[in-house]
Amino acid sequence: MEFEKFKEIRELFCLKHPEVTEGKMMSSPAIHYKSKVFAFFSKKHKMVFKLGKDYHLEKQDFEFSEFNPFKTKKPLSGWYEVDFEYHEKWRELTKIALNQIKAKS
Questions:
Q1: Angle at 52 between CA 103 and CA 58, to 5 degrees
Q2: What was the pLDDT predicted at 27?
Q3: Residues in the chain with pLDDT values less than 70
Q4: How far is CA 34 from CA 25, 43, 66, 105, in A?
Q5: Which domain of life is it from (predicted)?
Q6: 8 Å CB contact between 64 and 78
Q7: Whole-number Å distance between alpha carbons of 100 and 52
Q8: Domains of the chain, residue spans
Q9: Which end of the chain has fewer surrounding CB within 10 Å, N or C?
């Protein structure tokens, strides 16, 4: 069910935005903008977004966590993961992540 929601969002963004394509991030299914990953589906069945270091987490009314795929390193800077429990927020967060990456391109 979690992956189906991710696929739905990915398909929507690929249809709406010509520069958005399917891809991979660390062997996980991802969403790319001009070959750069801005969101993906983690092995923990969460959606992960590149929102940037300056994203204001405190403004959100649901739980985020920094994405840390490493055992002995710090989390990936600017990347945040959101549980399926909050899947209704995934589409909006995907849009924010896309706008972030567009602004830096």
A1: 125
A2: 92
A3: 57-58
A4: 14, 24, 24, 9
A5: Bacteria
A6: no
A7: 7
A8: 2-104
A9: N
**Would you state the pLDDT for residue 105?**
80
Q: Tell me, what's the pLDDT at 61?
A: 77
Cβ contacts of 84-93, under 8 Å, gap ≥ 24: 84/1, 84/2, 84/5, 84/45, 84/46, 84/47, 86/62, 87/2, 87/5, 87/47, 89/60, 89/62, 90/5, 90/6, 90/9, 90/47, 91/9, 91/12, 93/39, 93/47, 93/49, 93/51
> What is the DSSP track for 55-78?
--GGG-SS--EE----SSSPPPTT
pLDDT recorded at residue 58:
67
pTM for the full model? 0.92
How far apart CA 70 and CA 24 sit, in angstroms, is 18
